[in-house]
Each structure stands twice: as structure tokens, then as C-alpha cells.
Amino acid sequence: MGKVSVIIPVFNTTEFLKKSIGSLIEQTYKNIEIILIDDASSVACSNSLEELSKQDKRIKLHHFAANMGVAAARNFGIEKATGEFLYFMDSDDYLPKQTIEILINHIKEFNIIRGQTRKVYFSSALAVILDGLYQVKIYGDKKYTLIKNESVLNSLFRADFVRDNQLTFDEDVRLYSDLTFMVPAFMVAGQIPYVKEAVYFKRKRNDAINNPSLSQQDTEVKIKSYMRVYNSLKKQAISFLDESETEEEAEDIQKALDYLDRHFLNFYRKTIVSYFLDETRIMPLFNELAESFQLIDSKELNKYSWVLKNEAKPILVNNLKKYIRVSKRHHELRQLRNGLKKKRKFYIYIYKKFFLKRKADEKLVFFESFLGKNYSDSPKYIYEYMLKNNPEYKFVWSFNEKKDIPGNATQVIRFSLRYFYYLAKSKYWVSNSRLPRYLDKPAGNIYLQTWHGTPLKHLVFDMDDVHSADPNYKQHFYDQSRRWDYLSSPNQYSSEIFKRAFKYDGKMLEFGYPRNDILYKRDTEKEIRALKEKMGLPLDKKVILYAPTWRDDEFYGRGKYKFTLQMNLDQMKKELGDEYVIILRMHYFIASVLDITEYEQFAYDFSSYDDIAELYLVSDMLITDYSSVFFDYANLKRPILFFMYDLEKYRDTLRGFYIDVENEVPGPILRSTDEIVRSIKDIDGVQMSYRDKYRIFYERFCKWDDGDASKKTVEVVFENE
Ligand code: C2G
């Protein structure tokens, strides 16, 4: 079997190179050469390429002196290739071991063969490929569906075929140059086989802000490149059609023409139309748009909706003014239609269209804590402080269901029409987590983000792979956090992390957490006794609080996480039940329900209890894992045990920590119920041996908390206004 030249342009993808090049080195098909074209990357990236290319003789590394773009790099790669076959790969993607072997085994007499591309968000995707069970499907009439994703990736080409037909990538466009190679290739390739099992993992970058991939770049550049590519390919295909000699050839070219039209019209519908929502963007692109539309076959255009056809009319005659009018009307129609689809969407439509246009109430404050789940956390304490001290203000609380709370705040059900109405009406927003992205900020609005914990786990832009259920996490977070005017910080350590990891450079309120005021103001025997009575806890037993966090990779769906109790409650009850009771408190993301009916009088499920700070107060010790609860709990100076049965996975794969957990946490790290029981039986000894660590920890994380954070926060945010 012949040699395969794998061509990889590289531009600043240092963190992905090891994975991608490694996946080539490990291919079961060994007869390959790996042509790396360093497109004038950063020094770090170039060095890392040098280092990696020493690993394997099959690697040939070339450096460009100036950045030339992917198309030029790939063309250069074609020139340098010595193989019988060509294969293109991107430097942030990777392959399962068998991909090239499968493609080679099935290319047979064909000129091109394609495999399947799968999008991934992290570096550990696996494909299950059963030897010999490959389904090869031959595409003739419908072959253009194979390039719906307009990509050259994961296709194996005969090198002769590419050279004989002088196939190259158009170097004048920054994006969509793949089409300038693929469409002409498909026009002359004849039938094309496709093997689903030959998988290619295409990394969807999770950080479009710091490290955008080509496809995540500026929409205007994208549209311009696209129109240029379409116009030139369309003209080229039309001239081929004119020159075609046989009917068969003409039919093949007609398929390319139809594909191009369909592709263009879909691009227009999906990308250009929404970009034109802002009408000032139309004019600079309009001439080129008209040129493209004039190339479309009217037969194809007629297959589209009347909305699109109506827009096409003024474009075809190059009438900008009329197009702007039609486009505006259609946008309104689209918004309305979207709005009517679902109740929530309809409310958002009303919010934007009507509520936002009304004047806000200067003295109205909107509160939300943990996505409407609780009456808790810093928003609660800021509210209670204001209730007492700022009678000139009125308040709104957003909850998932109505709650019994002090004061006379208006309550709204999250996502109801009233929720949207009051959001628009409130000059102030106070929330401890993100508010939805579509909630445009009303004019003059002041948004206090209190956040909800000293960070232990890497946050947002400090995270590499995102394993959680929301793949666009970073982009969304960035958009949402641009609206914050104030951010509460519990300690110096957090201030530094927040600035970097949230890319936040607004005002920071460095007063400690309002939610921890209670730990200083109400830590008295009398208060604790009253709380225990309210909670129905026995007064003659000591209380253990178990409050673990959630795991990014264990979920049922977005925002609905699983939790399996790893603690043996039977054993705990048997060995500790005489002296202790245990409160189980799951994270608010956890959707799993605990069944603890067997452990009545010993285990209490307080997962839906509003305010964890009250649980801190009534407990004699805390068991937790990677939850920020221990930073707050340390204010009480009571013992903390760390039940970290999955420490390696959590630290190394899922998140990564900001502190050296094994050395810095102020209590023992335990991995089994046995160890927990042993530590609890000797809790005084444990406390003694962690005395110094605890002191250092307290100094570092709890020093700002003094019981007056709510007061100081309100003075800055509300009283200075
Ligand atoms: N919390 C709780 N009960 C738990 C765990 C946490 O009430 N069993 C509350 C605490 O107030 C804690 C806060 O939720 O400080 C945040 O909890 P973490 O476990 O630190 O979770 P975190 O990863 O910060 O949640 O990405 C956004 C997530 O919202 C962050």
C-alpha cells in the first residue's frame, strides 16, 4: 500500500499539538509522512513543534517566515508531499488509531474517499470501531451532501488526481478556502465512497474569546470570504458547463452548481440575515451580495420561502433602500414568530420590545439566589440589611416557587411574565450567579454580582477542557459577565482569580461575603438552639454536616447533575449514631434524590433547605470535598474533614485546583467511611494536629469577613449612587 502524506498547517495551537501529532504517530497504518507547516506561530508553539518532531522520523517540519494562512500552508504541503495519497488534518484535531488504515483499505479505484467527522469539546473522545465491520457507501448523484460541512478534512485523495487536475486552495480568502479545493475536486472525481467508521475528531474550541479558531472569527470577514468563494466557484463552474463535451459531464457540473446555490442560500438565511439585524451592516456588503444573488439559478431560488424570495427581489436589482425596508419588516416578523413559538421566547420578545423601553424605577432592587432555588446567600443578607436600614427602597425576589420570607418584597416566579417585567423595571439587580444571556441590561441598570464562593476549582477562562453539560460555557459566561457593575470578593486570593478567570475589570467589593455576616453575628448558643428547634434536630446530639459539590461529568442533562452517595450510612449510623446526627446537603445542581428513609433519626436530608449558612451554624463539624463551602465554614473555626474519594480524577481531569489541596486544606483528606469514622471518633486529636494549618488558612481566606460585609456593600452600591 502506498504512502500517505498528512498535511497539517499549524498556527498557535501549542496546547493541542501533542494530542494531534501523537494520534498520527499511533496510527495502525504506518506508511505515512507527517508534513507540519508552521505558519509563523508564536515562539512557544514553534519550539514545541521542534520538540515534537524529534519524536518520529516520519515528521517533516517547515517554518514559514510570515503568516500566510491555511490555504497557502496546505498548497505548500501538497508541493512537498512525496506520498501516493494526501490527507489534510488540522493541528488541534485528532484521530482514532485506525482512521487512515480504514480509508486506505477502501479507496480502491476511487479518487477520493471520505470518513466521518465528529465534533468534540475535549481531548479524550474515543470511537468504538469493530474490526472488519465497515459499511462503505458509494455516493454518486448525492455526493455533494458529503461536503455539507464544506470541509476538506478527513478525506483521502490520490496525489496524482490532485496534481493532474491542478487542485489548489485559494490563498486570497481567509475562510472557506476548503470549498475552493473541494468543489472543483468533486466536479471531476466521479463517485465518492464514504466510510462512517473512519472517524476524525474535530475539536470545537471552548474558548472563542482568547483563542478563536478560524470559524469563530469576525462575522463580517466570514461573510466577505464566503461571498468571494461562492462568486468565483460559481463562475468557474458555469464556464466548465459551457465547455462540457458530454451530457454526463454537464450533469455532473450541474450538480455542483445546484450544490453551490443551495449552500449559498442556506448561508444567507443562517448567517447573513442575522448579521443584518443591525442595518448599518448592510451597506458595506450589499454590492457583493447583489453579485452573488445574480449568479443564483432562479429554479433553486424558487424552492425557498416567500420571505427569502421577497428579500431577493431588491437584492437582484441592487436596490439598497428597498432591501433595508424589506429586511427590517422581515426581522420583526421573525422575532414575532420566534416569540410565539414558546412561552419563554414570547416573554423575552415582550421584554425587549416593550418592557425595556419603559423607565426603570430608581428605588427598586431585584434579587435572585442560586437560580431562584433559594432564599439564601449574599443576596439574602443584603436584602435583610436593606429591609432594616434602607426603607426608601422596594424589593423584588425571584424564586422557582413562592416562599415565606421576611419583609414585603414582591415575589415573582422565575421566567414568568412578571419576572421579565420586574427585571426591566428594577434599577438594581443583585444576583449570586449568572442571569440569562438574553436579558439585555436596561439603560442605567446597576448589576451587583455577589458570586457564590471562594474558588477552589479552576473557573471559566482558567479552565482548559470544559466537561460540563454546556459546551459554550466560556463564550456565554463572557457575554453574561460583561453586564456586571460590581463584584463581591471574599478575600484577596479570590480578587486576583476573579479578575483573571472572569476577565473582569469592573469594581470589586473587597469586604468579605455578606453571606458570612451571620457566622459572626449569630454564633451564640441561644441562636443555635433556636435554629435547631426550627429545623427539627435533636438537641442532645452533635451535628455533622455533609455538603459535597457536583461533578462536571456526571449529569442527566444541562443543569441536572447526578450524585451517588459514597459514604456508608449504615456504618456511620452504627458507629456514630449514639453521639451524632448527620445532615446531608447536596449541591443545588444535583437532581438525584437521596433515599434515606432507613436512617431516620440519624440522617437528615437538608438539600432543599434555603440557607446553608444556618446549617453551618448548627453543625459541630463539616465533611465536604471540593466545594467552596469549607472556605466559609472556616470562619467558625470548627473541624473540617475532606471526603475526597475521587481526588485524582477531580483534580487532574475535571477541573484542576488553585490551591495545593493535599497540603493546604485545614483538615484530613479521607477516602473511605472507615477513615471518616476514625477521624470523627478522634475529632479533638484531628483538630489539634491541624491547628497550624487552620490558622494559616483562616488568615488567607477568612480575614476580610467580620460580620459587616452587607453593610459595607450596601453603602457602596446603593448609598453612593
Ligand atoms: N452549596 C450548598 N450546598 C452544597 C454545596 C454548595 O449550598 N452541598 C452552596 C454554597 O454556598 C457554596 C456554593 O453553593 O459556596 C457553591 O458551591 P460549590 O460546591 O463551590 O460549587 P461551584 O462549583 O462554585 O458552583 O459554575 C458555576 C457553579 O454554580 C459553581
Notes on the protein architecture:
This protein is α/β, with parallel strands linked by helices and 721 residues long. The protein folds into four domains: 4-207, Spore Coat Polysaccharide Biosynthesis Protein SpsA, Chain A, CATH 3.90.550; 221-339; 350-450, 3-Layer(aba) Sandwich (Rossmann fold), CATH 3.40.50; 516-701, CDP-glycerol glycerophosphotransferase, C-terminal domain (Rossmann fold). It is built from 28 helices and 23 strands. The strands form four sheets. An eight-stranded mixed β-sheet has the order 3-2-1-4-7-5-8-6, with helices on both faces. The N and C termini lie far apart (76 Å). 38% of the residues are buried. The site of [cytidine-5'-phosphate] glycerylphosphoric acid ester (C2G) has 15 residues, from loops.
What are the key terms here?
single chain; 721 residues; alpha/beta; Rossmann fold; 4 domains; 8-stranded mixed beta sheet; globular; binds [cytidine-5'-phosphate] glycerylphosphoric acid ester
SSE layout:
Elements: E1 4-10, H1 14-25, E2 32-38, H2 43-53, E3 59-63, H3 70-80, E4 85-88, H4 99-107, E5 112-120, E6 136-139, E7 155-158, H5 159-164, H6 177-189, E8 192-203, H7 219-243, H8 247-275, H9 283-295, H10 298-301, H11 306-316, H12 320-341, H13 343-353, E9 361-368, H14 377-389, E10 394-399, E11 410-413, H15 417-425, E12 426-431, E13 446-449, H16 473-481, E14 486-488, H17 492-501, E15 507-509, H18 517-521, H19 525-535, E16 542-547, E17 555-557, E18 560-561, H20 569-576, E19 580-584, E20 603-605, H21 612-618, E21 621-624, H22 629-633, E22 640-643, H23 647-654, H24 661-664, E23 669-670, H25 673-681, H26 683-689, H27 691-701, H28 709-719
Parallel strand pairs: 1-2, 1-4, 2-3, 5-8, 9-10, 9-12, 10-11, 12-13, 13-14, 14-15, 16-19, 16-21, 19-20, 21-22, 22-23
Antiparallel strand pairs: 4-7, 5-7, 6-8, 17-18
The structure holds [cytidine-5'-phosphate] glycerylphosphoric acid ester (C2G).
[cytidine-5'-phosphate] glycerylphosphoric acid ester binds at residues 377, 433, 452-453, 457, 547-549, 585-587, 612, 627-629.
